Amino acid sequence: MRRAGGWVLGAIVVATMAGGGGLALKRVYSREIATVLYLRSDNTRGPTRDAIWRGAQYALGEAMARAGRFRVRLEASDPGGVASPDVAVWIGTTEAIAKQGKTQPTPFHVSALNTHPFDPTGHYGVIPDYPHQGRAAAQWSKSSKLQRIFLLRDVSSAYSEAISSAFLSAAGNELIVEGPVDPLIGREALYRRILDFRPDLVFYAGEEAPYSTTREVFTAFREKGYVGKLSTADADPEVSFLVAPGRLVEGVFLISPFAPAPAEFDAGYARLMGVRPGPHVTCGYFAMKAALDLLDRADSLKPDDLQRAAAASPFFIRDSTTERPCALYVARNGKFEFVQELK
Hints:
Low-confidence stretches: 1-8, 10-29
CATH superfamily of the largest domain: Response regulator
Order of helices and strands: EHHEHEEEHEEHEHEHEHEEHHHEE
Helix content: 25-40%
Structural class: alpha/beta
Distance between the termini: 38 Å
Shape: elongated
Number of helices: 11
Mean pLDDT: 83
CATH class of the largest domain: Alpha Beta
Number of domains: 2
């Protein structure tokens, strides 16, 4: 297990508290310790794993390592390891949380990113999941008055299936035609079927990185004369389309679970690190903010008290309503530009 503090944000936490004088420092360090444990799964791609960690550290520094009566420390461990007895909250990807399982008394789980086909039970997420993307896409198509829709789904992706199923349920539109995208089968017949249907929108429910099928299919549509709207979903959030756009097809819309970072966090992180926070840094930031909010509200390390506190927390996804919305982006000049939130 490794404690936070080796990175610059750890020093900022200490410096900030010390600036308030010896008495303030004594009050802080006399508090009961509560540990938030980040599950650094080796199954999570390195850049994503590290970005979530940086976002969590920033949130801890912003809170001066305090939450209610607790002095909070952030530690990291591989899933399956034995944690300290004062660990109150785990944060990590849903895959890491599922891997952790029941190896020790179960604290409170906060998933920073959905990477597991089946969400572990008993956890709370801080970003929209796959069905949220499908519902957001349906809402956008309705508000844009796109009536004739051809829905594409990746037959090899459970995530794409979840997005497409939610889209169909929420759209309630009889003028929707559905077709599979199979990487092993030729696509000319599919292209002809779509062009003959003359849709207002072709919505591809997403694929996994590196997004070669999305580029191939959408490029073919444009080359064959299709002038309607093209849209896809962020079905591989671990390597989001936002951070690996590659060769984008101009004008393609992206439905993503990653809304832009809040302005204050965006500006503060950019000043400190010299770059704006990407979607995975923002995930870690919100996961840690949620953990701190739970400790403040619960005033306890007991899982039952944390569960009750979660009911009042503004950080978590609940049913079809979320305080963290999906977002709509559009490809312009080789990058995705933010268009609007999809609540």
